[in-house]
Amino acid sequence: MGKIFYLMGKSASGKDSIYKRLRSVCPELKSIVLYTTRPMRDGEQEGVEYHFIDGTRLKNLEQSGRVIEVRTYQTVFGPWSYATVDDGQIDLAKNSYLVIGTLDSYEKLREYYGKKALVPLYVTVDDGVRLERALARERQQKEPKYAELCRRFLADEADFSPERLKGLDVTESFENRELEECVRAIADRIQMEGRREEADR
Ligand SMILES: Nc1ncnc2c1ncn2[C@@H]1O[C@H](COP(=O)(O)OP(=O)(O)OP(=O)(O)O)[C@@H](O)[C@H]1O
Fold it and tell me: What residues does the Guanylate kinase-like domain cover (predicted)?
């Protein structure tokens, strides 16, 4: 049976950077396209970055029991939802998947597909280094949002508390000191899972 490799970590831990590298290092892993009610941005394409839907369609999907997890953010443009939907794109009999997300969405997918289907890939960075990286990244924005950066940094403490991680069996972590080293360690972990699967057959 295939696995869902679930990449997660606190803000600015390097998930996006690692995800992009893993996409080329582990091309056999499929991606999952989420659904969102936020408007499409210039350059985005339906079905590539997201499936773009409206609130009514999301409600219908929820009523049909196909929404595995949904998060809604209150933005200045109104509420924007992001959802993982069981629309047939996830077929664990055939494929394994690489997904990037939050600990909450990891929990929901784990409830839906079963503990055995999920492999958590938890990325960590020393807090001081992470704050420096977050600040450097924010400084490059046209309108840096430093208060939001601080809010997220503090919220991470509760979101990824040791108790929560332990409760969800996230016992392994990958330190992102040097990007390529971290990518290699995660790729090795992914390959080990493949070997385990073969041995069990
Ligand atoms: N190993 C590394 N060494 C130095 N800089 C890094 C490393 N990994 C990532 N970065 C940089 O740190 C910043 C945060 O990385 P990235 O955006 O990938 O994190 P993230 O976990 O996806 O963040 P968020 O969840 O907040 O969007 C980026 O500017 C990225 O270029």
Answer: 2-191
Q: What is the value of pTM for the model shown?
A: 0.94
Amino acid letter for position 14? G
Give distance in angstroms: CA of 176 to centre of ligand 1.
9
ipTM rounded to 2 decimals = 0.98
Give a yes or no: residue 72 inside a domain.
yes
d(CA 194, CA 179): 23
Residues 53 and 10 in one domain: no
Distance CA 169, CA 163 (A): 10
Are 138 and 181 found together in one domain? yes
- Report pLDDT digits (tens) over 144-165: 999 999 999 999 999 999 999 9
Domain encompassing residue 49: 33-89
Report the atom number in ligand 1 closest to the C-alpha of 177: 1
Residues of the chain under the 70 pLDDT cut: none
